[in-house]
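[Q] Does anyone have a clean structure-token version of this?
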Amino acid sequence: MNTPSVPLFPLNLLPLPGETVALHIFEERYQALFHRLEAMELDEFGIPFVDGDCLTSLGGLMRLVFASEPDENGFRDAAVQCFGLFKLASQVHLPEPGDFPPYPSGDIARWSDWKNFELTENAETDFSKAEQLRKTPENEKFLCKPGNGLIQKLIRHQIAPKKRFEILNAPNVQRRNEQINNAARFSFLIAEQEAQRNKGYFPN
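[A] Here you go.
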């Protein structure tokens, strides 16, 4: 389903459904966006993932959870939660100085294919090993709500935005499973190294 003219806040982030993200709002154009969100003039906005200097077509649909009072410069902190994913259906509109609204916008297609993506057995094993080593899954429940197993793991293990993008945007099942396995293996190896360091062993 296409949704016209959704406000966009491009960032080097790829929020996933159920994930809450903290933002610091300092640019005037995005101060205007969050003012409208807080006033309930807008219900949602999108964070399209920026890979380096390249704007990708994939992003997270967001709703405002909380915003602090603006300081004397209009700067504020906000918590936003992802409730879905989208793909850009058109080029991003970048307003000229003096235009209203002042923030970028674009047509999007709500994207739900991710709901069918599953963990591989190897990835499930490596993610479970990492959780046992860290012993922190209970403490990290605030990061996400119950839902798709793959999405939960990507959030819980704080998989990097670029790796999330590579998994979700993979051209086929085989390539996606390879990316999932790589992410899970890396998460396990990092957890293993952290556990050794905490025991006083410092690997090269």
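[Q] Thanks! Anything notable?
[A] Strands lie at 2-7, 20-25, 45-51, 54-67, 76-88, 105-111.
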